[in-house]
Automatic annotation (TrEMBL), chains A, D:
Protein name as it appears in the record: Xylose transport system permease protein XylH
UniProt entry tagged with the keyword Transmembrane helix: yes
Record membrane topology: Multi-pass membrane protein
Organism, scientific name: Harryflintia acetispora
Subcellular location: Cell membrane
Biological role stated in the UniProt entry: Part of the binding-protein-dependent transport system for D-xylose. Probably responsible for the translocation of the substrate across the membrane.
Record flagged with keyword Zinc: no
Domain of life per record: Bacteria
Keywords: Cell inner membrane, Cell membrane, Membrane, Sugar transport, Transmembrane, Transmembrane helix, Transport
PANTHER family listed in its UniProt record: ABC TRANSPORTER PERMEASE PROTEIN YPHD-RELATED-RELATED, XYLOSE TRANSPORT SYSTEM PERMEASE PROTEIN XYLH
UniProtKB/TrEMBL annotation, chain B:
Keyword Ribosomal protein (UniProt): no
Protein name (database record): Xylose ABC transporter ATP-binding protein
Keywords: ATP-binding, Nucleotide-binding, Repeat, Transport
UniProt xrefs under InterPro entries: AAA+_ATPase (IPR003593), ABC_carbohydrate_import_ATPase (IPR050107), ABC_transporter-like_ATP-bd (IPR003439), ABC_transporter-like_CS (IPR017871), P-loop_NTPase (IPR027417)
UniProt GO MF annotations: ATP binding; ATP hydrolysis activity
CDD domains documented for this protein: ABC_Carb_Monos_I, ABC_Carb_Monos_II
Length: 386, 501, 342, 386
């Protein structure tokens, strides 16, 4: 009996993988199609590097949005706030002659404070997230125009610009990837063995090492490709680091558990002694801090803060999460899937722009592919769940 | 009793993600009978009924069934309804934002003016003998009242076959009796009734035929008078059950919980709880009995800090005053409440068994905020085993559990933080006899370990059998207190229906 | 999309074929592909540029790879990176933002691809030729023209979306002309509003509100483009004032030209698209072939320590006086189009 | 017992009124403040007429959005679709020389088809509404640029322009208002008496006639104010007519019940034999048709279709509904409250623009007022519900 059940559990897990693979499959199809129609430019090493750099800002917002969405909320203000904080960072360097570190810190700290503001209205004052964050979006749009005075704030600090424009030295890239993999395998082995201790069954070594091999392959391919261009872009590295950290927070911490509970059934969470308001507040603070980071990356990438920076990016962030299967109803979702979602969005934009078609046609094709890709994903999942 | 067969099931099979839960059920239901279905939690009763009523459409199950001789292939609930099969599901599906009468006539396919719908709703409730305002929003009703709405919903439709999946789990004796009266009336009219319940007494009294399911297989179909309760239990769980309630052994210890002058008002200023005082001692199990709407649920929610509105009164824990203004504080000071509504307030359906069980005790299961996964799994596994929660593993979503097993998960959730006071509102709602006994035993053992246990239950035999002391409520007040020795059904009912003060 | 011939390195079958045909016809230009990164083609002014570029490219036998950023700075950076990836020979860019464009152009530089900038300045030395359309200057011209129609009274300014720097620059130019009159009190800037997304509807509401607030006491309306001018004129129409209050716009949209001959709008600005395209592409061609640019440059502009050869985008103010010669005689529009309603 | 409960129910009803009054109160405060700071311009008859005309397009979208929201969905494409359909109408008049009636019909019919398209992906293919309508929004944005060729399409047809710019003759205004009131009272009296027959309890005449008097007052005030300017603007009349029709559909038809049920608890709806997909599809068709109408009104108002028309209006529409207390979670909401929400949004924009403060400050103040107004509303409601 026991063994049958654990076997099933294995199968269920497998299905979960297939679920995230569905969108990866869709992504792969998109890539292959673009590769064909761009006659090889799309998957050129250089363009892959571009692609990842291009997705990094939205990616950082998307992983923050994932946390908000899992807790059953969302944040419409991140576009404005990212623009605002990017401008704040630029202004603290160019206007206040602060050090780049101080600028980054300032953006992130103010971001957290803005998160507090949003969280306060939503969690404690009971204003619907839609209105609270729409209001904030207006407020910080105004703030952005005030900080920039309607013009661009250029940033020349080379160290600051490194964040958006430079690459990790190849050797460091290999080192980091190797280190991450080893750490991961170490913890996974420990985790699995404690699992089998409880469930009284050995998890198949074959399957497990297959999985490790898979990760190794993807990781190695990524680093090799990046390194054969110029190295892992620092912005991409930041995104991956933050994604890793958030994945850990959501999966392995007490707070993470609470986020899923609050989003899944707020009443049940409250009745289990969870402080829903505090959890909700914290998710917005995380989102705010990440918006600060995104603003910094955006400013560093463009070497300037502009009055229109990051406008409308909140929709891209939510879209990335939803493409990655995060439910708007709360309670479910994974950071890594949102990153994949952001990659899908970036691929569409990048691929369409490589193609020499009218921008109106581009909009139409992009809209269609978006719908079809998600539909494919949904269908796969349904077929899996019978 | 040799009426024609209205429903004939041939080799019905069903699996969920590769796990077979029905292994080929053959069954014949005769027209105009009350046919009961019993079996342990997770035996497959609800699943079978969902197949008959089109919830699982044709193609999602194996085997076939015939309605009035014709092969039935429903592609949805609507199709089943058209064919004359109506189900009142175990997990109540009502639209909380809508009013009672709107729910009653939802999807009825009848084009009626509003006043007519209200009128008919009132008539149904009059028949059921409960005063329920047809215009009240369903969200404000207790579980028992919601159950009545669901029943009314089925009654206003003209069905040939009515399926009731544990309709009385949240009803007290008096309300159940009214329902039985109506069911018998329907039987007279030639309507066939399929009836699922874990209250074996009422099954034996009500039904014509009883079918027993075990582990997705049909073990017995017999006329009801060929069964007695012991035999039925043996047939269900495959062994005899010695004694339905564990004996009370202990001498109560110190007073653990003491409530003074607890009152609660709703937004309209109505007193739901009216100056209640009570105390529970370590090692004691105190039961609260009463009819539907007596305010029992509100009382325990007050103690747990979960009742909205104006609350007054004081709570003492182990002789010290405790400020309990939220469930969080309650849990911190050692109070646990297993809510009567597991779906709304108990479970996070999309999370797995482990996450649900550990939800109220995350603190001790983590170090510097990081979850101690091994420990969490160990503890959750312990309770899964101890309560006999039937699941495919700790990582199964609780949505996929049978009703009774979901209830056990809710109980496990509040056992894990090791409370000093454990309150259970309808603790065995939907739990099978075998498991009920295990829960009773568990509660008794907890009491022995010094926990103060307070239970609210509409199942009178349960209150009588389990409690060391019984409080009876009516209109928000405690109208009587009975010791284990004095308590009888009649006395409890006397206090529960007592007029005035 | 019928008015735009598909780009010649379009990978679709027909386009490829077309490209081959062209290459046969013009063997000497084989291989020159110009990557065109436009800030937007959603506004008539820029779409006209796109059309003119395509036409000119066909004449010169160049391949164009056109992308447009829909006025989004980040998108544009992306697109330029992509153009560099796809290995064009020259990049022609109208920056959405003067500073934000610099890293992308540095990449082009690093890849050895020459850059021609047109429409707005790019604040970087990483460019080879610059064709300017100075919005401060344009603003000045618009205000000067407006003063011909009205030199005293209440002025309403309806500006564009501040998410780009254009409105700020145009206002700066306009104010520099109006300032003396504002100082001596003969003119008063009574209303100044910037409209989200340059939406004509927003401009109309703002104008309605201005008229309400001022009891119709408005003497001159300065709008940052023709779409918004159209909205403002609708609001004036609602008060029966259309035609009595001069309204100034920019872009020379056909609807605006029609209003000018009807007397409802006072002036607009046309960007000489053909001229622009001619300078841009000849500069691009020269750069690709490594030829000198002297004949195209009218001056040099000092940007970030480099002296960039600079050409000029001709802008012409259009009023009822010169509309025939500028728009009809040059063949941009027919008389019937413009006089449709007059 | 019976009577006590009905008494309670009466009180509950009263509370519901107070609930809609809370936002009206907030609106009134906003009006009074603007009236003070604009020194009387804000509540001038002329500006009130402006205000209502300025809100009419968003209003039409907001009432459609209400239906989608109640059914538990939403539609991000309405901005683009409205712009697209406005352009289609303009082009069918200016380019195809169709009659104005045909143009209106075309816009509405194509709108319904677009609704079908959205509904299909959401209800039948299972694509999340967020993605399906975001995709559509891109598609019809592209379509808009293709139809307009990036330029303005002027419309001169006087009959068509009437829709956006003209007024009902004052006499007709009085007639319609009077007629509506009489019809309303007639049906209400009938309804109430049939209710009281069933409930066996007399509804207090005093309360009832108080209510009628209230409606009479508001209606009369509205018509008198409008008529003392130029009459009820036709666009406003269209909005009111459509609101009335939708209110009826939601409150009094079987379809309306189903919409609430599907949004409130989709599983319960399904278990009751409701065809959730069909209901969802229908709500999107309604939304699409209304977007067509909104596009027509917008084009008629500007006497032109422009490529940027209605851009971003979806957010205003959703915001109006949410301000009006419609829950994003579905299952509750009222058309009339969304109209009030749209009025709040329009009042903020109008009042700030009358004040002629810096646009950056305008954004900030608008954001703040929005949050505070909704917070006030939420607080009032909470206080009422204990
Ligand atoms: N949606 C589902 N997904 C996965 N497993 C399911 C699902 N529904 C039911 N099951 C499994 O099928 C088995 C039978 O469940 P069912 O609900 O029919 O039991 P039951 O006899 O009604 O029990 P109870 O008395 O507790 O209501 C259980 O083991 C349950 O876990
Ligand atoms: N939120 C609410 N709004 C309005 N009335 C409520 C609300 N919650 C409960 N009530 C009413 O309060 C009364 C007391 O209900 P309560 O749930 O305490 O009864 P109970 O004795 O636990 O019975 P049961 O749980 O069997 O229904 C009922 O009449 C119920 O309808
Ligand atoms: O032509 C104008 C363009 O230059 C500016 O960028 O956006 C507004 C347009 O009208
Ligand atoms: Mg069941
Ligand atoms: Mg109860």
């Amino acid at each position: 009996m026991e063994s049958r059940e654990t076997g099933l559990c294995g199968r269920l897990k497998l299905k979960k993988y297939v679920r995230s693979y569905a969108m990866i499959l869709a992504l792969a199809s998109i890539w292959i199609i673009f590769q064909a129609v761009t006659q090889g430019t799309f998957l050129s090493i250089r363009n892959i590097s571009n692609l990842f750099r291009q997705m990094s800002v939205v990616g950082v917002l998307a992983i923050g949005m994932t946390v908000c969405l899992i807790a059953g909320n969302f944040d419409l203000s991140v576009g404005s706030v990212t623009g605002f904080l990017g401008a704040v960072a630029a202004w603290s360097i160019s206007g206040l002659s602060q050090s780049p570190m101080a600028a980054v810190l300032l953006a992130v700290v103010i971001g957290c404070l803005i998160g507090c503001w949003n969280g306060f209205w939503i969690a404690y004052a009971g204003v619907p997230a839609f209105i609270a964050t729409l209001g904030s979006s207006l407020i910080f749009k105004g703030g952005l125009y005030i900080v920039t005075q309607g013009t661009t704030i250029p940033v020349r600090d080379p160290f600051f610009l490194t964040l958006g424009q430079k690459y990790l030295p190849p050797a460091l890239g290999y080192l980091l990837a190797g280190g991450t993999l080893i750490a991961f395998v170490f913890f996974d082995v420990r985790h699995q063995s404690s699992l089998s201790r409880v469930l009284g069954e050995q998890v198949s070594y074959f399957k497990r090492f297959g999985r490790y091999a898979g990760y190794l392959l993807v990781g190695a391919a990524f680093v090799v490709v990046m390194n054969s261009y110029e190295g892992i872009p620092i912005a991409v590295f930041v995104l991956l680091g933050l994604s890793g950290a958030l994945t850990f927070v959501l999966a392995k911490t007490r707070f993470g558990r609470k986020v899923y509970a609050v989003g899944g059934n707020p009443r049940a969470a409250r009745m289990s002694g969870i402080n829903n308001a505090a959890v909700c507040m914290t998710t917005f603070i995380i989102m705010g801090g990440l918006a600060g980071m995104a603003g910094v990356l955006q400013t560093a990438r463009l070497a300037a803060a502009t009055p229109g920076a990051a406008m409308g990016m909140e929709l891209d962030a939510v879209a990335s999460s939803v493409i990655g299967g995060v439910s708007l109803a709360g309670g479910s979702g994974k950071v890594i899937n949102s990153v994949i979602g952001a990659l899908v969005m970036a691929s569409l934009t990048n691929g369409m722009s490589l193609l020499n078609v009218n921008s109106d046609v581009q909009y139409i094709v992009k809209g269609l592919i978006l719908i079809v890709a998600v539909w494919f994903d949904v269908r796969m999942r349904r077929a899996q769940n019978g | 009793m040799s009426a024609e067969v209205i429903l004939k099931l041939c080799g019905i099979k069903k699996e969920f993600s590769g796990v077979r839960v029905l292994h080929g059920i053959d069954l014949a239901v005769r027209s105009g009978e009350i046919h009961a279905l019993v079996g342990e939690n997770g035996a497959g009763k609800s699943t079978l009924m969902k197949i008959l009523s089109g919830v699982y459409p044709a193609g999602e199950y194996g085997g076939e069934f015939f309605l009035k001789g014709a092969k039935a292939r429903f592609h949805g609930i609507k199709a089943a309804q058209r064919a004359g099969i109506e189900i009142i599901a175990q997990e109540l599906e009502l639209v909380l934002q809508m009013r009672v009468y709107e729910n009653v006539f939802l999807g009825s396919g009848q084009k009626l003016p509003e006043s007519e719908m209200i009128d008919r709703t009132m008539k149904v409730f009059r028949r059921l003998g409960i005063p329920l305002d047809p215009l009240a929003p369903v969200g404000g009703l207790g579980v028992g009242q919601r159950q009545m709405v669901a029943i009314a919903k089925a009654l206003v439709k003209e069905a040939d076959v009515l399926i009731f999946d544990e309709p009385t789990a949240a009803l007290s004796e008096a309300e159940s009796q009214k329902l039985f009266f109506i069911l018998r009336e329907l039987r007279e009219k030639g309507i066939t009734i399929l009836y699922i319940s874990h209250r074996l007494g009422e099954v034996l009294a009500l039904s014509d035929t009883i079918t027993v399911l075990r582990d997705g297989r049909l073990v017995e179909t017999r006329l009801a008078d060929r069964f007695d309760e012991g035999g039925l239990i043996a047939c269900m769980i495959g062994r005899e059950l010695c004694g339905r309630f564990p004996p009370a052994l202990c001498e109560p210890g110190e007073e653990v919980l003491s409530v003074r002058g607890m009152s609660a008002q709703d937004s309209a200023g109505r007193r739901l709880v009216d100056g209640v005082s009570l105390s529970v001692r370590a090692g004691e199990i105190v039961g609260i009995a009463g009819l539907m709407g007596a305010g029992r649920t509100e009382l325990v929610r007050c103690i747990f800090g979960a009742q909205p509105g104006r609350i007054s009164g004081e709570i003492m824990l182990c002789g010290r005053p405790a400020a309990v203004s939220s469930p969080r504080e309650a849990i911190r000071s050692g109070i646990g409440l297993v809510s009567e509504d597991r779906k709304l307030e108990g479970l996070v359906g999309m999370l797995d068994v482990m996450q649900n069980i550990t939800m109220a005790g995350l603190g001790p299961l983590s170090l510097h905020g990081v979850m101690l996964d091994g420990e969490a799994r160990r503890q959750a596994g312990y309770y899964v085993e101890k309560l006999g929660i039937r699941c495919t593993g700790l990582y199964q979503r609780v949505e996929g559990l049978s009703g009774g097993n979901q209830q056990k998960v809710c109980i496990a959730k509040f056992l894990l933080p090791k409370p000093r006071v454990l309150i259970l509102d309808e603790p065995t709602r939907g739990v099978d006899v075998g498991a009920k006994y295990e829960i009773y035993e568990l509660l008794r053992r907890l009491a022995l370990e010094g926990v103060a246990v307070l239970i609210v239950s509409s199942d009178l035999p349960e209150v009588l059998g389990l409690s060391d002391r019984i409080l009876v409520m009516k209109d928000g007040r405690i109208t009587g207190e009975l010791s284990r020795q004095e308590a009888t059904q009649e006395r409890v009912m006397y206090y529960a229906t007592m007029e005035g003060n | 999309a019928q008015n735009e011939a598909p780009g010649t390195n379009e990978p679709s079958g027909a386009a490829v074929q077309q490209e081959q045909e062209e290459q046969e016809a013009l063997p000497e230009e084989e291989g020159i592909t110009v990557g065109v990164a436009q800030c937007t083609t959603q506004e008539e002014r820029w779409r006209n540029d796109a059309n003119a570029l395509q036409k000119k490219a066909d004449e010169l036998g160049l391949s164009l790879q056109m992308v447009d950023a829909a006025n989004d700075t980040a998108t544009q950076a992306t697109q330029i990176e992509n153009l560099v990836s796809s290995g064009v020979d020259v990049i022609l860019v109208s920056p959405t933002d003067s500073d934000a464009i610099t890293p992308a152009l540095a990449q082009a530089k690093a890849a050895g691809i020459p850059v021609v900038v047109w429409g707005r300045q790019a604040n970087t030395a990483d460019q080879d030729f610059f064709i300017i359309n100075d919005f401060v200057e344009t603003g000045k011209k618009m205000a000067q023209t407006a003063l011909e129609a009205c030199s005293a009274g209440n002025v309403v300014l309806i500006g564009g979306d501040k998410s780009s720097t254009v409105p700020t620059e145009m206002t700066e130019g306009m104010m520099s002309v109006l300032q003396p009159r504002l100082d001596d009190g003969s003119m008063k800037l009574v209303f100044e509003q910037y409209i989200t997304n340059w939406m004509p509807d927003g401009a109309m509401s703002a104008m309605e509100n201005a008229l309400t607030q001022l009891g119709n006491g408005v003497d001159l309306v300065l709008c940052h483009n023709d779409g918004m001018a159209g909205g403002a004129i609708q609001a004036l129409e609602g008060q029966g004032l259309a035609g009595t209050v001069p309204v100034v716009g920019m872009d020379a949209e056909i609807a605006a030209l029609q209003r000018i001959v009807e007397g409802k709008q006072y002036s607009t600005v046309i960007f000489d698209h053909e001229g622009t395209a001619d300078i841009c592409l000849r500069a691009a061609q020269a750069l690709a072939k490594g030829e000198p640019l002297d004949s195209l440059a009218v001056k040099k502009t000092a940007i970030e320590g480099a002296e960039i050869p600079t050409g000029e985008i001709p802008t012409i103010m259009i009023t009822n006086e010169n509309i025939m010669e500028v728009c009809v005689d040059s063949g941009i529009h027919t008389k019937e189009e413009i006089y449709l309603n007059a």
